[in-house]
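pasting for the record
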Amino acid sequence: MTTTTARPASRAAAKRPAVAPFPTQRRRSSRTRILPTVLLLLGAVYTLIPIAWVVTASTKSRGELFSEFTFLPGTGFLENLTDLSTYGGGQFWLWSLNSLIYAGGGALLSTLVSGAAGYALARYRFRGRGLVFAVLLAGVMLPQITLAIPQYLLMSEIGLANTYWSVLLPSIINPFGIYLACIYAQSSVPEETIEASRIDGASEFRTFRSVATPMMLPGLVTVFMLQFIGIWNNFLLPFIMLSDESKFPLTTGLYLLLNRGTGTPALYSLAIMGALLSIIPLVALMLFLQRYWKLDLISGSLKG
């Protein structure tokens, strides 16, 4: 007598061919893929059009700027660059140096303060911590324009108005940077690592410097970049604080080229060339700092 044995259900199911999705499902999935791509392309075009206009307009002389088609290049690029470099005895490059001092120094100090404050809020438990965090969130939602006049009055009282410190000091405290550093410290610095460092005899400062800071590095780089860009593009604060043209940053200096007083023509070609040159440091900074985000993604995948 022959007996037949049934195959296990799991093995039989494994040998079955996969069921192809219905045509309607394929069309629906293709639509869901196309729509975000179209939206991203529209956003990229919307962002790149002003940059393309600045690039082409910087190549036009004063006569070509208002007489030719917008996106056609002109013949006055070198002339505009030379005139801008020699304007006021090289005043544009002095404004560029001032912007580098304000943005670089302010972003560096703000990153240090934000990292220390964010780490303290994330890993220490103390009385009033919730109140401090609530005030921090209120500072994030508060528009910076509302603080400009009070900051000017304060700087005038202590004799720091129209100095470099009047622009640097208000840039050090960044509520959003502290909040971002706090959130990043909570997710990237484990409590077990901090406790192990304390058991090994490390002080709190050494634990923050040697253990927590390397773990928080991608977040601190993000804080530095956002603060650098914010200070570099800031117009209102230096416009209110400074009256000496030799201390102007690029934003206020380029505004001066367009508003030179009654009866004096605005230097549109020089202002556009200056705007183009002012973009280059931001692009270079972004290209230089992106390695830290790539490193963070790689380290995260290795940990997983």
